[in-house]
Design goal:
By secondary structure, the chain is of the alpha/beta class. It is built from eight helices and eleven strands.
Length: about 280
């Protein structure tokens, strides 16, 4: 068997039959030297499996960040998946399509991916009641969107996957964009996700602090106090909304680190953060 550190993921197209909606991106996707992807128009899942002897039955769908224009596939994607695998958790990186001002596209991919994972749960030794979602920055907006806009599965459809629930059982958010309101939101993510002419109604629908209800899953939130890219009020308002609905939530605000640290060694509190996350994941 390969070493866990060198595991090559299984890659699956999310929409093998093609997609209904087009994000209108005409340029080919490019990959930089960090493995980051720009202009992505094809949704794929990268699946990393734990050692069967250590398998906890948990799985996490990972949404890398990048302001809804880019996917930071390394330190906010595959490196996090490798860490999860060491904890006995199946790590699945979602290479979601860029919205390019078509608001439903990343969400369509992420909701589909949740159903897709549950459809494979038996085959992969996953407990369908322990499938969570994680997201970094704009990917945290996507993860919190799925956590507040899921469906419980549709019956009587010819599309077998649609029968499964897309509700995450837990959410892990790293310095997430939550709000689409100008006061707190991340302008770039908002423009890319909702478009230049977004109505107030649409902004509110995807300001996920307003969309929390009693079915929203438990949350782990980690961020830095000095984050100027996505201000801490995004996480604080979301945490408050979760508490109003009495949803279990843990929030860790580190004194420094700024924005976008992911799994980088340069983040001073990386070891503490991973210890907190590991402990939290063992509580359910």
């Amino acid at each position: 068997a390969m070493l866990a550190g060198a595991q090559t993921p299984e890659v699956f197209p999310l929409w093998p039959q093609g997609v209904k909606e087009n994000n209108g991106i005409k340029v080919d996707r490019t990959v930089d030297d960090q493995g980051g992807i720009s202009n992505n128009s094809t949704a794929e899942l990268l699946v990393f499996h734990p050692d069967p002897a250590k398998n906890t039955g948990k799985a996490v769908l990972i949404c890398p960040g990048g302001g809804y224009t880019y996917l930071a596939m390394g330190y906010e994607g595959e490196e996090f998946a490798q860490w999860l695998v060491k904890q006995g958790i199946t790590g699945i990186v979602l290479k979601y399509r860029m919205p390019n001002q078509h608001d439903r596209i990343p969400m369509t991919d992420a909701l589909r991916a949740m159903k897709w994972i549950r459809s494979r749960s038996e085959e992969w030794g996953i407990d369908p009641a322990k499938v969570g979602i994680a997201g970094f920055s704009a990917g945290g907006h996507l993860a919190s969107t799925v956590s507040t806009h899921f469906d419980s599965g549709k019956s009587g459809t010819t599309d077998r996957l649609e029968q499964y629930s897309s509700r995450p059982d837990f959410q892990i958010l790293f310095y997430p964009v939550i709000s689409m309101e100008p006061k707190y939101g991340h302008g770039g993510s908002c423009r890319q996700f909702l478009g230049e002419k977004a109505t107030e109604e649409l902004k509110k629908e995807f300001s996920n602090e307003y969309q929390v209800d009693s079915l929203t899953p438990r949350a782990f939130i980690a961020l830095s106090d000095d984050d100027r890219g996505v201000v801490p009020m995004n996480s604080i308002r979301y945490y408050s909304a979760l508490k109003e609905k009495e949803i279990p939530a843990a929030m860790y605000i580190y004194p420094s680190g700024g924005h976008g640290w992911g799994m980088k060694d340069s983040f001073k509190f990386r070891n503490e953060m991973l210890m907190e996350l590991k402990a939290w994941l063992m509580t359910f």
